[in-house]
Amino acid sequence: MYCNLTQQVQMSFLSQTNRLAQRPGAGTTRRSQEMDNPSRRNFLKDLGLGTTTFSLTAERTPAGQMPGRPLAADLDSQASGPSSIMAIAAHPGDAFFAMGAAVALQIHLGAQGVFLSLSLGEKGSSTIAPAEYGYLQRQSAERAAKALAARAEFLNYPDGEIPESADVEFAVCDFIRQYKPAAIVTHWRGSWHKDHRACYRVVGNAVFYAGLPALQRKQPAHAVKRLFFAENWEDAEGFAADTYLDITPVFDQWLEACAAFPMWRGETGFRYNDYYRSLAIGRGCLSGFTYAVALMSPPEQLTRHVHAL
Length: 309
Description:
Largest sheet: 7 strands, mixed
CATH class: Alpha Beta
Radius of gyration: 19 Å
Number of domains: 1
Oligomer: single chain
């Protein structure tokens, strides 16, 4: 969850009141943009009960963290810098259109960003043969990654047939251990697309495997600190945003990267450009930013660890 580059993290009523006690008269972040009279949404946000905005920064690992499990929202964690991030998607278009802005922002803040596609999406065109279209998809992803100063990786499983197997999970685990992202963005499970549902489950197990020290692989174990699910028009069932990310600093750069894909302009039948551009504006309106993307967290990540109320 995020705010502007110089803004503090808002995490609970406790942290809110502590700041007010330390700085009498000070308000919450971006208070100047809010109404003087508190609304129900702002009240819930300040208590940490509604959708909030956070900065995805690297955090220390609590002593009691379970191996293979993302961290809870520990209020005592101290920010130390921008988090490295990996987008893991079923297809290259999903990686850049739905998850690319989050990756772009972390790179803008000085972190490392990686895009991992489980398939090339080679069956996505009705006019171009799968082998040729897969090649074009890979080229587009590599150009888009270069435009964002990111890395692009591929596993090349058949489009529409991404398997849910230990082999796939270990392959993704190996990439996680290689790049050591603090945060991962991937698909939400509520999708009508078979590959997207498979990716959701594969990533969950891969994160678990990556964090197990007893599991011997080429690279040592790595614990992912934060897991997020991206907002995707194909994954809308049950998606409930709890995180708004201010992508204003990288909005234009992200759009330019997405434009490396012909399908971004609607050539496969869906107007991706119009949809995701408009969605960023709408999410910005809801969060108080100019442009934003919405993310969803697993329930355990929203759990608070506090010493007192």
